[in-house]
Amino acid sequence: MMTMSSDETALSPDDAAAAVAVAAANSAVNSIPSLKEDDHQLHSFVNHHQTQNHHQNQNALHQQQQHFLQQHQQHQQHQQHQQQHQQNQQRMPQAQQQQQHHQQQHQQHPGHVPGIGTNHQYDLLTGTATPEADLLESGSRKVAPRSSDLFKVGPPFSETRHHQDIYCKSNDLDVNPILEARIDRGFETGENGTWIGYKRNYFTLVAAFSLENFDFDRFIQNKFYTFEKASRNGQSVGENKVEINYFAIRLVAKCSDDDVSISLIQHTAKRDKGPQFPPPIYPAVPGEMPDHETVKASCNKRNGSKIENMNKIFYFDRSDYYHTVNLDSMKDDTILKNYPSDSISRIARFERIQFTSSIRVKQTSANSRYFTLHVELLGIVEDEDLQIQPILLSSIETPPLIVRGRSPSNYHKERTSGYRGHLQGH
DNA sequence: TGCGACACATAATC
DNA sequence: GGATTATGTGTCGC
């Protein structure tokens, strides 16, 4: 039994079991040994974070297994998050409602706009202040750490961009993959349409893919292939047809300037007290995006049945599927059998993600530097040596994102750093 | 100057 | 309804 650090305490046995399954999935993906071309990112992605992980408190064996453990723990988290919430709008204090209303006029509201004075702001919120007063203060009020207000829909993603074509194995039909994703926490708009996040704060993102004109049954009934660019010593030498073992979704960040590929880190709910790891790569089957409220409701759940319900939304239970279609798993000859675990994602959910502290976030002049988040659909294939490796099939990306650093100037609306107009309560 | 670490505070969750 | 948890952010000191 592996140790799981402090997170373990919050888990039910069910969670642990599910986590093991998911971890198995990730271990397979993460054992991907060699990468090509644009996948070098993934390579460094994984390696970098292995070395970067400060909290290897588990008695891990070698790197790969460490990573496995990381993924494991990470997924325990995911298991923890479950449903329940609702439009808290109805039960939030009047003043807050007004604030929110105001904010929504600017799409996503400022919410956690950090303010200077801390405590008095909370006081205003919790009781004594009039709505008017709150409105006036809203620009400098910050949202409390656990406030559900922190969940806001972020910027829309681009249309799906294709990198490698996908074909049906049976009839060579060209298949059109569609990626969807949404940021559910951590970004808000400035007045001029820029999207702003805070380096110190978490963001949440969900993603799913589908194949055009393929419902789930049709997906299951088919196998797919693509082409990998073959190269020798950096020289392109054509393409090889390769069967896609299974699909996976990953999240990467890119910078407008340099190529900082390793710029995301994920925490556990324990944050400083827990381990950190790169966002996982989710083996996934086609799925439908959950709505914002569902994602919101899925966070920080510890109740077993709630977790279970959430897992039904976010994960595909292969065993259950075999059972319902009365199929012997040993006789499965579909793409499903290639997936690396019994816990396969319908929806890739990335929670508690932050830009790594190693990234530089300066933003004195207007357009100095920005980031974009990219959700990628990967085809996991085997190369000549039967080594598993991912091929980038398609991707979507956010518009430019401003990530505000830790500078105090970013935490005082009076010192307008350029994008705080929306915070003002008038 | 920016960052790791620690600390405080507070809504969500059970 | 009290205890615990998760997390925005204030702060210290390198």
Automatic annotation (TrEMBL):
The keyword DNA-binding applies. One of its GO terms (biological process) is meiotic cell cycle. Residues 110-415 bind DNA. InterPro entries: Fungal_trans_regulator, NDT80_DNA-bd_dom, NDT80_DNA-bd_dom_sf, p53-like_TF_DNA-bd_sf. Residues 49-108 have a biased composition (Low complexity). It comes from the Eukaryota. One of its GO terms (molecular function) is DNA binding. Residues 49-123, 404-426 are annotated as: Disordered. Residues 110-415 form the NDT80 domain. Keywords: DNA-binding. GO terms for cellular component: nuclear chromosome. It holds the Pfam family NDT80_PhoG. This is Meiosis-specific protein.
